[in-house]
Amino acid sequence: MSLTHPEILSEKRNLLAQCLKKAAVSKNGAVRKVLLAGAGVAALAFGVPQAAFAQADLPKTIPEGLKLEAAQALPITPFYTEAPSADAPTWPGGLIRAEKVTDYAIPAGMTAWRILYHSLDAERHDVVTSGFVLLPAGPAPAGGWPVVAWAHGTSGVAQPCAPSLMKDLYYGDEGLFEFPKAGLAVVATDYHGQGTPGAHQYMNKLAQGYDVIYSVAAAHAALPGVLSKQWVADGHSQGGMASWSVGEMEQQMKNPDYLGTVSVSGTVDMLDFIAPTPEEVGAPFYFPMVAYGLKARYPDFDVHSILTKDGYEHYPLIATKGCWFTGYAAYLGKTSAQIMKPNWTKVPAVQAMLKEDIMGDKPVKGPLMVLTGGGDVSVPPGGVKKTAQKACKNGIKLFFHLYPGLDHDPTMINSTQDQIAWIKDRFAGKPFEQNCGGF
Questions:
Q1: What is the pLDDT of residues 392-434, one digit of tens each?
Q2: A single Pfam family, by name (predicted)?
Q3: CA distances from 89 to 93, 194, 217, 225 (A)
Q4: Alpha helical stretches, state H, 183-313
C-alpha cells in the first residue's frame, strides 16, 4: 500500500523501520503510530488477521519524541489563529474559512481541504475548531461523496497536536486512506484546542461529540454539492468515545441524514482506561493528558491534586508543545503510582468527569458497531465489552466484535475493511443486524 509521495516520505517511518524488532500483536501497552510503512490492510471478515504488521521501538527520550513529531509537523499558520471575518457565520457548524491543501502526504488522486468552523465545548460555549476533508480521486458521484465523520484517537493535548497539522494526517497509515480509496469522503475534526487556540477538553465525550457533528455542516458549506448529505460517524480510541457520543447526541437532534456510528477501541469505560487493573496493564503516560483535560473542562481544578512530582515534571511540555511520541518518552518506565497521587480518582473533578463520560446508558440514534481488540492493553477490551453489554441491557441495539489478540492500533488497521463494508451497508439502506445477547 503506497501511502506517501517519495519526496515527502515520513522520517519517522524511515527511522522506525531501521529498528524493527517484533510482530504486530504487541503486549507492551503503548504501541502507536509505529507500524512499518508498506504493510497492507487485511480484510478480516471478523476473523483472524490475514496479514502481519511490523512494529518498532518507540522513542526512549524526549528529544527523540520531539524529533519524530517535527518530521511530520506543519506550521500553525494564520488560517488557524486569525479572528473570523465580520461576516462569517457564528452558529455551531458555521464555516469560518476553508483552503485547499497541497502539503499533506496523501495518495495520488485524493484531494484535501482544511476547514475552520464554530463548534461547542462541553458546556455549550462557542469554540473555534479546525479539521480537514479528504476526498476520493475522481469526480463526485451524483448526490456527492458519502461522508464518514472521523474522530481521531489521542494525538496529544497541545495546539500543535492537531492531525490537520501533520503531513500524514496522523492516521494516514492506520487505515484512514482506505476510506477515500473505497469512495468515502472523510470529514475529520481536530477537536477544539488542537490547531486552534484554547484548551482541548481531552476525553470529554460532549466536547468531542459536538466537534464531530458540526464538522459535517462546515464541510458541506466548504464544498457545496461535493459531499452527500448523508453521513456516518467513525472513531478510534478517544474518537471511539466521541463517535458513540455522536449517536447519543443525534438521538436528541434527530438529524435524518445521520445513519449510524462505528466505535473502535473506544474509551467508553473511562475508569477502566485511566485506572486499569494490573492484569490490564494500561498506559500511564496518558494520565498527565487526562489531568490537562480536567483542567480544560473544570478551570478551578488543580492538576497538582492528582499528579505527583514525577507526574508533573513534564506536564508543562505536554500541555504546550509535545504530542503523543513526546508524552510516551517523557513518562517511559513510570508506573501509575509514580505519576498519580493515591486516591486521585476520588477528587471531585475526576468524579465529575467519570459521571459526564458514562457510556451505554443513553439511547443512540441509528445502528451502532462496537469493535475492540482482545490484546489491547491501552484501552482494555473488558471495559469496552462490559459497556456494550450494558448498552444492550438498556435497549441499545448494537453489533459487537472482538478481534482476538490484537492490540490497540492493530485493531484499527486490521478492522478497516470491516468498518468500510458496514458503513457502505448503511448508505445502501441495508438492514442492520445486531448481536446483543450473543457476546
A1: 999 999 999 999 999 999 999 999 999 999 999 999 999 999 9
A2: LIP
A3: 9, 21, 12, 19
A4: 205-222, 238-253, 270-274, 287-297, 309-312
- State the pairing for strand pair 227-236/185-189: unpaired
CA-wise closest residue to 198 among 120, 133, 274: 120
Dihedral pair phi/psi, residue 354, rounded to 5° = -60, -40
User: What is the tens place of the pLDDT at every residue in 362-395?
Assistant: 999 999 999 999 999 999 999 999 999 999 999 9
Question: Looking up cell 503516560, which residue turns up?
Answer: 285
Q: What is the CA radius of gyration of the chain?
A: 20
Q: b vs e for 190-215, b when ≥16 Cβ sit within 10 Å of the residue's Cβ? A: bbbbbbbeebbbbbbbbbbbbbbbbb
DSSP 166: B
**Are 142 and 239 contacting, i.e. CB atoms less than 8 angstroms apart?**
no
Domain 62-428 has CATH 3.40.50.1820: yes
The position carrying cell 492531525 is 163
Question: How confident is the model over 13-55, as pLDDT tens digits?
Answer: 333 333 322 223 232 333 444 432 223 333 344 443 333 333 3
CB 266, CB 235: distance < 8 Å: yes
Q: Which residues pair with 202 in a beta bridge?
A: none
The angle formed by the CA atoms of residues 314, 316 and 322, to the nearest 5 degrees, is: 75
Nearby residues of 187 by Cβ (< 8 Å), 6 or more positions away:
131, 133, 147, 148, 149, 150, 215, 216, 219, 227, 231
What is the Cα–Cα distance from 275 to 281, expressed in whole angstroms?
Answer: 10
Q: For residue 358, which of 394, 399, 305, 403 has the smallest C-alpha distance?
A: 394
Strand partners for 98: 115
27-31: long-range pairs with CB below 8 Å, 24+: 27/281, 27/375, 27/377, 27/407, 28/377, 29/281, 29/282, 29/283, 29/377, 29/378, 30/58, 30/283, 30/285, 30/328, 30/378, 31/55, 31/58, 31/378, 31/407, 31/408, 31/409, 31/410
**22 bridge partner residues:** 55
The DSSP secondary-structure symbol of 35 reads: B
Q: Dig out the grid coordinates for 146 from the structure.
A: 458519502
| DSSP letter assigned to residue 304 | G
Query: DSSP 3-state assignment of 187?
Result: strand
Q: What is the reported pLDDT for 172?
A: 93
Query: Where is 180: in which H helix or E strand?
Result: helix 178-181
Helix ranges (DSSP H) in 321-431: 324-330, 336-339, 348-356, 381-393, 408-427
